[in-house]
Write a structure and sequence with these properties.
The chain is α/β, with parallel strands linked by helices and about 500 residues long. The chain contains 9 helices and 39 strands.
């Protein structure tokens, strides 16, 4: 477990001008070998950047969050527009330090800023708030988050003052204070510099304390010295990490905030790493649901997005996918190979095997499937049965009604306690426009019937099997729309005889 304080920030009065969050989201992600902006790659059902925004939004108001965007900026903005955050343009991507320079005017009115990486989707709100409190407690100009990962290769290393200036510390080996101590009871050892992997000296390669790419700054000294960054590095960029040495050399206090859980700060530089982050997040989601009373058999086979919510006593069988903002009530049964996306299910709903539901609502006690397909816009009422190979689209089905077999109900309103027979089709499309079919309460629609919209079948009507209904059917009536049956005796035998004679 991390050592951060597990609590949200409780800002005092005037905090709206005290703290802002800047999220780095301008990069291309070249190593992903993808045309898509790096921060728009998804894990847990939503973009990397959206996860970071969600965590930051539990610490500061969305209006105090600034995403620095550059590569395909308009696409990135559109993807997270509904979050209510603000954006800063970094037209020419010249490094993380340059990104903060681009945000200079936006953050000038804040006393402090936190800088987060837009591709670290596992970051937790309590870590962000813990950094913020620690930064205040230490009265630092800069606080960086550090850790000792099993393999620090690829990370910049944190350097501490030489022993002669801080006897209790050795260069690069000082142990920052443990989070959770009372404010002021223990100072974190100061940081003199961060050295990136490709600039380490042979003596520094063995250092294990790594910079994890998350920072807090007091805004005034940051902006005062930000122009001192230089691009004298292999990539010719302005590194924000160099601010540690710039501020230290200027006599400002720079400290490290150490976490024992560096995994939550991991980014993804390859598709394999991206998939590994997705697996981590989904495992955490499944664990959260099971801790809340949901039974998930073989959770490692299930795909459950981060925003899915499931009530206690629901059972989820292997190989189920619950996607988007799906909400599932209590005492439901979701059977294997079913996919539910952006749906709301009531209590005691049963989804049998191999169902696909998208953008629909299912009320209490409904029974769906197997092999049913609910397309977007469906409203399935209480105790409704949608059965084998039934497809619905923008259909509203009333309480207790049934469509048990091989049926298509598109742009259809069905009343209560109505039975739709096998093979029934509502013909909603005339080649140019969609039309509505209305079926009332207590109606019986015989098998293999077609209802050509727009058409209304009123309450208690009866449709004979095999009918093609093109006109409205009055309440309580029988409608039969099929050709009269004719039987010609002896015709089949005579035909066989003629064919045999020709052989």
């Amino acid at each position: 477990m991390s050592q951060e304080r597990e609590s949200k920030v409780e800002p005092d009065s005037g905090s709206a001008s005290k703290l802002a969050v800047v999220i780095m989201a301008a990069g291309k992600g070249t190593r992903l070998k993808s045309r898509r902006p790096k921060v728009l790659h998804e894990i847990g059902g939503k973009p990397l950047l959206a996860h970071v925004i969600a965590a930051a939004s539990q610490v500061v108001a969305p209006g105090d969050i600034y995403a620095v965007v550059g590569h395909q900026a308009e696409r990135v903005k559109a993807a997270v527009a509904e979050t209510g955050i603000r954006f800063v343009e970094q037209t020419d991507q010249r490094g993380t330090g340059h990104a903060v320079q681009c945000a200079g005017n936006a953050i000038a009115g804040y006393e402090n800023i936190l800088v987060l990486s837009g591709d670290a989707p596992l970051i937790r709100p309590e870590t962000i708030s813990g950094l913020w409190r620690f930064h205040q407690d230490q009265q630092a100009a800069m606080t960086l988050v550090s850790a000792e990962p099993e393999d620090p290769t690829g990370y910049g290393r944190v350097l501490h003052p030489a022993p002669d200036s801080h006897p209790s510390d050795e260069v690069g080996a000082g142990a920052p204070s443990r989070v959770g101590a009372s404010p002021g009871t223990q100072d974190a050892p100061e940081v003199v510099a961060v050295v990136e992997q490709d600039m380490l000296t042979p003596e520094q390669v063995s250092l294990r304390e790594a910079n994890m790419g998350m920072y807090a700054f007091r805004t005034a000294p940051l902006l005062a010295h930000l122009g001192k960054l230089a691009n004298n590095n292999p990539h010719g960029e302005l590194y924000l990490t160099d601010m540690a040495q710039v501020l230290h050399d200027a006599g400002e206090r720079v400290v490290a905030f150490r976490t024992s859980d560096p995994d939550q700060l991991l980014g993804a530089n390859t598709i394999a790493e991206l998939v590994a982050l997705d697996a981590t997040l989904r495992a955490a989601t499944a664990s959260r649901l099971m801790a809340a009373g949901v039974t998930i058999f073989r959770p490692e086979t299930c795909v459950i997005d981060a925003e899915v919510e499931v009530a206690p006593d629901t059972v989820i069988e292997p190989f189920v996918q619950l996607l988007g903002r799906t909400r599932i009530g209590a005492d439901c049964l979701i059977r294997s190979y079913t996919v539910v996306e952006n749906c709301t299910l009531g209590n005691c709903v049963v989804l049998r095997q191999n169902c696909v539901l998208t953008g629909s609502t299912v009320a209490d006690g409904a029974l769906i499937g197997p092999f049913a397909h609910l397309r977007p816009g469906c409203e399935i009422g209480e105790e409704v049965h949608i059965g084998n190979f039934v497809e619905t689209k923008k259909a509203r089905i009333g309480k207790g009604s049934k469509a048990s077999h091989l049926t298509y109900l598109g742009d259809t309103v069905v009343g209560q306690r109505t039975n739709i027979g096998a093979g029934v089709i509502t013909c909603n499309y005339d080649g140019a426009h969609k039309h509505l079919t209305r079926i009332g309460d207590g109606v019986f629609v015989g098998s293999d019937s077609t209802l050509v919209a727009p058409v209304t079948v009123e309450d208690r009507a009866y449709i004979g099997a095999g009918s093609c209904i093109t006109k409205d059917v009055p309440a309580g009536s029988l409608a039969v729309g099929r050709a009269r049956q004719i039987a010609k005796e002896g015709w089949a035998d005579a035909r066989r005889a003629r064919l045999k004679a020709k052989e």
